[in-house]
């Protein structure tokens, strides 16, 4: 009897269960459709935001171009005005003035060249004389050929033409005619553009990995993001590293994309393993030198060098660091190996660069000096005063017979390493070095793999790309929405990075 009732109960309730399932299905289908619709809406909104950001950048760039045109028109009108006034003067008087001006210009040029030569000889004669044996080792290490050595141990004469070029680079007019300024450079043509919008604060540093497949970008809020780019898909984030303090330097391991070194303002050096997605080593400099201004890995040995500096309190200028410390670290034991000698109370080191075989390390300082170290001996072998202001960035030339330096005043100089002290090429990009932005970020430069194009940071929404030692005009990058604070070139391809105060990073491939 009990069994019969149970069967009856099941039979009676089967339709009820079926009805409940139908009701649930009807309820869930609209909910699913609503969720799908909301996802599509969010996706479209993100796309619209990206397009609006690009349009805003283009409008800001257009506004900047119009302002530059107005400035040039104003200068041209003033030139025409003074020219008309001059034509009303007596022709003899005009001729005399022109002759006097020409004579004054010639004398001034000769005086500048002579002064530059005398300054080089007077201030550097003792340094070069005491460095002769070291300089021979330096030339051997750089080229592997004992027959190549610096032929002169003092500044070479800088020709009058070079001096005039150095001064006229910053002018809009030359010899009464309009000269092409950076604002007139054509916009770079790109095959591929990707914009990474993963940061929420201004970008302080961005670097390609050794293969160029990964990118590390740091923000002023203390975060580092590692991400990849692909022409077929939007940029995807691999990892986010929270450092909790200002990030001052980034450096990838030279032989692989596995390790990323991060230098912070509180003396920390973190080694992040990309595969494991974790910090594998957390080092600390001494309390006396808390600001890790730069990190460089040797291209050959498992070592890296850190440039740390003490802080001078009471000043907000980024070039107000105190004394310098250069430490060599072992990347197998993660311990300090040695401290490179810099002398007593040395000014802060701002930038480091290894040559191709890791035997020579170049370092630039806030007092305008360039230092060269023999890494096998752990000693400084030479150095010279390169700028009247702090040097913010330094790079070896492609054939390593020269070295580039960028001053905080915007002057770029290529120095010969075979005829030490000789200027091979120079540009003045001071109009891009905004004094206000220089207080919060270091200007830097990057060379392409062929060493023919030099990309420089900018206080404007566009950055200049100079043709090194060429007569061809330069180029301008595509615009950001704010100042361009960091740059880097791909290690093998004609592709570069620009990070901006508008929180974005752009990857551009040249056509």
From TrEMBL:
One Pfam entry for this protein is ANAPC4_WD40
InterPro entries found in the cross-reference section: Apc4-like_WD40_dom, WD40/YVTN_repeat-like_dom_sf, WD40_repeat_dom_sf, WD40_rpt
UniProt entry keywords in alphabetical sequence: Coiled coil, WD repeat
Q: Keyword Coiled coil on this protein?
A: yes
Question: Coiled-coil ranges per the record?
Answer: 35-83
WD repeats sit at 196-237, 384-419, 477-511
Task: Show where the Anaphase-promoting complex subunit 4-like WD40 domain sits.
Answer: 343-396
Name recorded for this polypeptide: Anaphase-promoting complex subunit 4-like WD40 domain-containing protein
The domain of life is: Eukaryota
């Amino acid at each position: 009897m009990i069994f019969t009732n149970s069967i009856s109960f099941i039979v009676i309730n089967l339709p009820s269960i079926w009805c409940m399932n139908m009701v649930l299905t009807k309820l869930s289908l609209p909910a699913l459709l609503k969720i799908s619709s909301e996802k599509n809406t969010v996706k479209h909104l993100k796309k619209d935001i990206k397009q609006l950001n690009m349009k805003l950048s283009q409008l800001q760039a257009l506004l900047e171009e119009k302002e530059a045109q107005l400035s040039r028109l104003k200068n041209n009108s003033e030139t025409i005005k003074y020219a008309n006034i001059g034509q009303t003067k007596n022709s003899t008087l005009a001729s005399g003035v022109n002759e006097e001006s020409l004579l004054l210009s010639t004398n001034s040029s000769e005086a500048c060249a002579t002064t530059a030569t005398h300054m080089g000889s007077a201030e550097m004669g003792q340094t070069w004389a005491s460095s002769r044996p070291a300089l021979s080792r330096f030339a051997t290490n750089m080229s592997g050929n004992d027959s190549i050595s610096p032929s002169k141990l003092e500044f070479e004469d800088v020709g009058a033409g070079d001096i005039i070029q150095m001064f006229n680079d910053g002018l809009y007019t030359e010899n009464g005619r309009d000269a092409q300024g950076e604002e007139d450079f054509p916009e770079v043509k790109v095959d591929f553009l990707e914009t990474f919008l993963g940061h929420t604060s201004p970008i302080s540093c961005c670097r390609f990995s050794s293969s160029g497949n990964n990118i590390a970008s740091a923000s002023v809020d203390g975060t580092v993001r590692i991400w990849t780019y692909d022409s077929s898909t939007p940029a995807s984030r691999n990892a986010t590293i929270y450092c909790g303090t200002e990030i001052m330097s980034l450096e990838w391991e030279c032989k692989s994309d596995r390790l990323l070194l991060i230098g912070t303002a509180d003396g920390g050096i973190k080694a992040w393993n990309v595969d494991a997605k974790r910090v594998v080593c957390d080092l600390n400099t001494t309390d006396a030198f808390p600001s890790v201004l730069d990190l460089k890995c040797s291209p050959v040995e498992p070592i890296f060098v850190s440039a740390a500096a003490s802080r001078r309190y009471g000043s907000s200028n980024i070039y107000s660091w105190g004394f310098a410390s250069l430490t060599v670290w072992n990347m197998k034991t993660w311990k300090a190996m040695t401290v490179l000698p810099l002398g007593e109370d040395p000014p802060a080191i701002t930038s480091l660069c290894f040559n191709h075989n890791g035997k020579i390390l170049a370092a630039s300082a806030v007092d305008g000096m360039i230092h060269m170290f023999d890494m096998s001996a752990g000693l400084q072998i030479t150095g010279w005063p390169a700028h009247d202001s702090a040097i913010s960035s330094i790079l070896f030339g492609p054939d390593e017979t020269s070295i580039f330096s960028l001053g905080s005043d915007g002057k770029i100089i290529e120095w010969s390493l075979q005829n030490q002290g000789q200027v091979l090429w120079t540009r003045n990009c001071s109009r891009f070095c905004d004094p206000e932005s220089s207080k919060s970020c270091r200007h830097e430069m990057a060379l392409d793999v062929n060493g023919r194009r030099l990309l420089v940071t900018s206080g404007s929404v566009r950055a200049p790309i100079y043709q090194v030692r060429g007569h061809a005009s330069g180029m301008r990058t595509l615009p950001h929405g704010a100042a361009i604070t960091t740059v880097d070139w791909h290690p093998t391809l004609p592709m570069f990075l620009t990070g901006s105060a508008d929180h974005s990073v752009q990857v551009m491939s040249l056509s």
